[in-house]
Each structure stands twice: as C-alpha cells, then as structure tokens.
Write a structure and sequence with these properties.
By secondary structure, this protein is an alpha/beta fold. The protein has 13 helices and eight strands. It has two domains: 235 residues, TIM Barrel (Alpha-Beta Barrel), CATH 3.20.20; 40 residues, no CATH class. 52% of the residues lie in helices and 11% in strands. Strand 5, helix 7 and strand 6 form a beta-alpha-beta unit.
C-alpha cells in the first residue's frame, strides 16, 4: 500500500491524523522515530529555515524542501502549497508538480498571490470567493492520483474582508466542490472551532495546532480529524540553538557535558543510519582491509 493510499484510507475511516512539522530529513526521521505516521511541511517553517518569509519563497523552493522530507522517510507528507502560486493554470501546475515530487497532499488557500509578508501581522487579504473556487476546481481537475489529497484552506475568518460567516460560506463551498479536507486558518479558540465545525458539516476538517492550550484529543472531540504543527519545528530548533550558544557566549561552555554530548550524538547517528553503514563496512571493506593487513 502506498503512503498516499494509506493516508487516504485513514481519512476515509475517520481516524485522527496527527502530523508534526518537519522541514528537513533529520527532523522527519525524528518524527518517524517517535512513532508518528504522517508529516507536515509548511510554508512558514520552510521559509524560516531559509531565513526568508514564506511569501518570498517560490514553488520550486517549497517543493525542494518537501521532496527532501519525502525521500527521507516512508511516511505520507502533507505540504503547504501557498495560494496555488497564482491563477487557475498555476494551481494546476502546482498540483502536478507536488504530486510528481511524491507529496501525499497539499493545501491551497484563498489569500492573494503573491502573498504579503504583512499577513503574519494579521493583515490578511483574501480573493473573492468565486475566484478561489474556480482555482480549486482546476486544481482538482489537475490531479492524476485519486489518493493525492487536495485540501481547501480559507483564511477568511481572520482576513480584513472576512469573518466567521464568510469562512463558513467558503468552507461549505469547498466541501461541495469536492475537496478532501477543509482547513480554516486562524480559527484557534475552542468556541470558534466549535462554531466552524457546526457550520461546515460532513467534511473532514484540518486544524493548525502549536500551543498547549488545546490537546490532540480535544481537537478530535471538537470534530477536527487532522491536526498539523506548522511552526513547532522551527521555533524548537531556534530555541535549542539559542540555549547552547547563549551558554557558550556567556560562560565559554555550551552547557552540555561530554556524556550528554555522546548520548545526543548517538541519537543523531541512529537517525542518519550511521550504525547500519558501519555494520556494512565491518562486513565488507574493513574485513578486506584487515585480511590484507594480516597477509
């Protein structure tokens, strides 16, 4: 069973899908090692790890990040596909390109393209609903693998032009159009999540998590089948770097003793398959070298 087929089966069965974020192969391997079965690669994390913001990333750059994650683990990867990178024809190309890269599914949103950096400060703008639905309809038409998930994301709840009623209208229209999931960005409080769920029935919903105020189980109880963690990996990485390098700057030491370093290195080496490579060398090149040395 392919990873796409497996993810589609989980979605169709109603099973909850929890997808921690990962933006490079080692973070993806870590997610896998902890027992998670789905990964999310978002625009925010991808842009941040390149030291630019998501609105400045190209489709090619996002696919490059996602493809490295896809190739590193045998897990389905859901990816952020921005606003489809343009108009309907661009959205079709987006679907075909992410599908060819081995991604299991993408979400496409109703913000303007090119996206504006100010949306991170809450100044979001969405295109007219008719234009968005037209774009999504062409995206759906472009799909060749029926198990490739196309998720309709609406930012109308927090947009300057929108509100909850508009988000619900767009959510229902996306469902009727045939998307696999609906994703309401910016809907975070339990009361609002409940309102959106009741307003948009009969379609799986995806929610962006990332704080400890609502648990995975609570999201499930609220009716959100898929939970993704979009900013968690990059803020955790920056926090980890800051801890050791602040200590180095202030004390002359990284704040981790030799035993801790060795333990951490062992964990990293397990994630990058180093023990396997060493075992192969022990059975081949190193054995040959020792045989020659003894003769």
């Amino acid at each position: 069973m392919s990873v796409r087929t497996d993810l589609r089966a989980k979605l169709d069965s109603g099973e909850q899908i929890v997808a921690p974020g990962a933006y490079d192969p080692i973070s993806a391997r870590l997610v896998q090692s902890l027992g998670f079965d789905t990964i999310y690669t978002g625009g925010y994390m991808s842009g941040a790890h390149l030291a630019v913001t998501e609105p400045l990333m190209t489709m090619t750059e996002q696919i490059d990040v996602a493809e490295k994650v896809v190739k590193s683990v045998p897990l389905p990867v859901i990816c952020d596909a921005d606003a489809g990178y343009g108009e309907p024809v661009h959205a079709m190309h987006t679907v075909r390109s992410f599908e060819a890269a081995g991604v299991a599914g993408i979400h496409i949103e109703d913000q303007f393209f090119p996206k504006r950096a100010s949306y991170h400060a809450g100044l979001e703008h969405v295109i007219p609903a008719e234009e968005f639905l037209q774009k999504i309809s062409y995206a759906l038409r472009a799909r060749t693998d029926p198990d490739f998930l196309i998720i309709g994301r609406t930012d109308a709840f927090t947009a300057v032009e929108g509100d909850m009623d508009e988000a619900i209208r767009r959510g229902n229209a996306l469902r009727d159009l045939g998307v696999d999931m609906v994703m309401p960005r910016g809907v975070r409080e339990s009361e609002d999540l409940d309102t959106f769920r009741k307003g948009v029935p009969n379609v799986p919903l995806l929610v962006i998590a990332g704080a400890d105020d609502i648990s995975v189980q609570e999201y499930q109880d609220l009716g959100y089948q898929c939970v993704i963690y979009a900013t968690s990996p990059i803020i955790a990485a920056v926090d980890g770097y800051r801890r050791i390098y602040t200590s180095l700057r202030d004390t002359g030491h990284i704040g981790i003793n030799a035993q801790q370093v060795q333990q951490m290195r062992s964990e990293v080496e397990a994630l990058i398959s180093l023990p396997e490579y060493q075992q192969v060398e022990a059975e081949t090149t190193e054995r040959d070298f020792q045989d020659r040395a003894h003769h």
